[in-house]
Amino acid sequence: MGQGRSFHLSDNSLVTRRHSEGAQLKRLTITSELIDESNDPCNTVDLRKRNYLANSSLNSPNRGPKDTVKATHEKNTAALQAEVHQLRTENARLVAICSANLERSDNLNKDYESKIKGLEAYAKQLEEEKLNLFTRLSEIGTGRLTDSNPNIADLSDPNRPSQLAEQFTELYDSEWTDAFEYLSKVKGLENTRTVWTLLNILKTIYNVCFESRQKAKDQLQEAIVSYLGYTDEDKDISVIKKTERMLRECRAKQFEVLLSHATQDIREHLNTQLEGNVHDIIDNYAEKCVRVCWFLCRMDPPMHLDFDANKMDVPQSDDKNDLILLFDEAKFVHYSVKGMYMEYVVWPPLYIYKDGPLLKKGIAQGSNINPVKQSRR
């Protein structure tokens, strides 16, 4: 009995050992197969999956291959779904944050654009106010300078003294030359008488403009003083300057009207002087003289034409006029004859005001004969 039991135990031990060896052999076989498959490039993707299935089949001898694959698939699917849900949740959170930031950025941009436009408009307004202030300050400064000093020209005035001097020169070069040609060649006047006639027209026009200017000034001044309620006893300097400034403004506004009246008066005078025979060329010369002389007299103080350089009167004969002056080359240039004596004035010199600086030299005929000595012979 004892031996039979001992033999029986030995058989069981042998069976157990064989089962163990069989399991080990099976494990080695599966491992060997997996290693062989891992060397195959087509099966490298499923290596982890097969290892997992092999381990599952060894650890769970009661499960079949289909159950193991299904369980693994369900587990992986659940994990992936959980991860997808987590990613979607995170994505939604980030999208919400981005949308909020974008909206806030748009609002800030609109706010900044509105502020920039407001600042630009304000800056433009300030620039306009600055320009207006500079303009007013310049006008005040220019007015003060020109009021107190006629040598300082208002550069904003297109008819300032330097420009008028150029117009005065152009009058001689153009209209005077045409009129001289007409009177000397067409009308047959002697050169000296032609020069005197044209000079006398200029002198007459200048005197009429000067008198008209003075008369208009007195009338305007009286009207302004009366309007402002001042009396003759008011001697305040500020009142005088204010009145003079208003006078200049009124004269500037009524310039065309006053010029038209002056032109009409001068036409009547020329018709009388030339016995109603005023040619268009002479009329053009006279009209240009009116405009230039009116601007000369419009200045404050008036610009001055010096017609008294010698005592030239209307030539009554072929005798030369008495010469009383040496030729002053600081004030005149020679006409057609040079000499140390002045015979007669052809074109007067122009001064910025009477006894003031010289702007343009006059033109005079020279002579080398002293008529005083000649008359004594």
UniProtKB/TrEMBL annotation:
InterPro entries: MIEAP_C (IPR031981). It comes from the Eukaryota. Residues 70-129 form a coiled coil. Keywords: Coiled coil. Residues 160-364 form the Mitochondria-eating protein C-terminal domain. This is Mitochondria-eating protein C-terminal domain-containing protein. It comes from Sinanodonta woodiana (Chinese pond mussel). The lineage of its organism: Eukaryota, Metazoa, Spiralia, Lophotrochozoa, Mollusca.
